[in-house]
């Protein structure tokens, strides 16, 4: 990945500098300080070597960050799994057990299902044209989904009501973290719209992402409502 694409700064390597004003060797010309007068009476400002190295380091770190979004094998595996769909009737008329077993069943389903659905969305971000996927705002949303995936995947198996209560806190935290996703996506695509050669790709991505987001939030809030109802009894 070219560092100049990510930073907007062109950093010339030692063999790309070419001729310098004054015609002298490269090591001689670098002996002039910023703003020093060159032979022939002209002035030239040189960017310090440390400054160039700083930009280069920033570019490499940025490149690593973006690349890491695309190289996560666990997400790849989850993205290949099919999600288990529930109908509204299933959600509305699922039986309630006096001992709260239905709450544990719902939590176990979410614990298994949410990482798969989120992995599908991450796969969608990866399929965006690269210049759009590298937009800082789009990357922020992409990172939110990756973070949510790992937080859910790392949560231990839910075996009792205490673990279910902890899981509810995690789900609520993720709902809060993602509350501005729609606004962020709108901003990101507005910023990079001029780079989109085929707007049908963007429309398809947004339609799928927003529908998936709606389904995920419905499942999550439904479980939280079940949990709250059980606590109030």
UniProtKB/TrEMBL annotation:
Species for this entry: Labrus bergylta (ballan wrasse)
Q: Record's Pfam families?
A: BCDHK_Adom3
Q: Which family does it belong to?
A: Belongs to the PDK/BCKDK protein kinase family.
Q: What is its main location?
A: mitochondrion
The record's section on SUPFAM superfamilies has: alpha-ketoacid dehydrogenase kinase, N-terminal domain (SSF69012)
What are its E.C. numbers? 2.7.11.-
Show the GO cellular component annotation of the record.
Answer: mitochondrial matrix
One GO molecular-function entry:
pyruvate dehydrogenase (acetyl-transferring) kinase activity
Keyword vocabulary terms for this entry: ATP-binding, Kinase, Mitochondrion, Nucleotide-binding, Transferase
Gene3D superfamilies noted in UniProt: Alpha-ketoacid/pyruvate dehydrogenase kinase, N-terminal domain
Q: Please state every residue range assigned to the domain named Branched-chain alpha-ketoacid dehydrogenase kinase/Pyruvate dehydrogenase kinase N-terminal.
A: 85-229
Q: Which intervals of the chain are annotated as region Disordered?
A: 12-35
Any idea where this protein resides? Mitochondrion matrix
Origin superkingdom: Eukaryota
GO BP term, example: regulation of glucose metabolic process
Please give the name of this protein: Protein-serine/threonine kinase
């Amino acid at each position: 990945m070219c560092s100049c694409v990510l930073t907007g700064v062109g950093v010339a390597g030692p063999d790309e500098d070419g001729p310098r004003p004054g015609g002298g060797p490269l090591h001689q010309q670098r002996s002039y300080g910023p703003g020093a007068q060159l032979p022939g009476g002209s002035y030239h400002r040189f960017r310090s070597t440390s400054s160039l190295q700083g930009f280069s380091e920033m570019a490499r770190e940025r490149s690593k960050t973006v690349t890491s979004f695309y190289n996560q094998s666990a997400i790849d595996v989850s993205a290949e799994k099919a999600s288990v769909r529930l109908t509204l009737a299933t959600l509305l008329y699922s039986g309630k057990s006096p001992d709260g077993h239905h709450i544990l069943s719902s939590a176990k389903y979410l614990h298994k299902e949410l990482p798969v659905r989120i992995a599908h969305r991450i796969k969608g971000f990866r399929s965006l044209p690269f210049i759009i996927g590298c937009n800082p705002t789009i990357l922020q949303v992409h990172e939110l989904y990756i973070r949510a995936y790992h937080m859910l995947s790392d949560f231990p198996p839910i075996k009792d009501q205490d673990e279910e209560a902890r899981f509810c806190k995690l789900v609520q935290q993720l709902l809060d973290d993602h509350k501005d996703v729609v606004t962020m996506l709108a901003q990101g695509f507005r910023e990079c719209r001029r780079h989109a050669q085929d707007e049908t790709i963007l429309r398809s991505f947004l339609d799928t992402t927003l529908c998936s987001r709606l389904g995920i939030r419905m499942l999550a809030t439904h479980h939280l409502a079940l949990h709250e109802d059980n606590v109030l009894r």
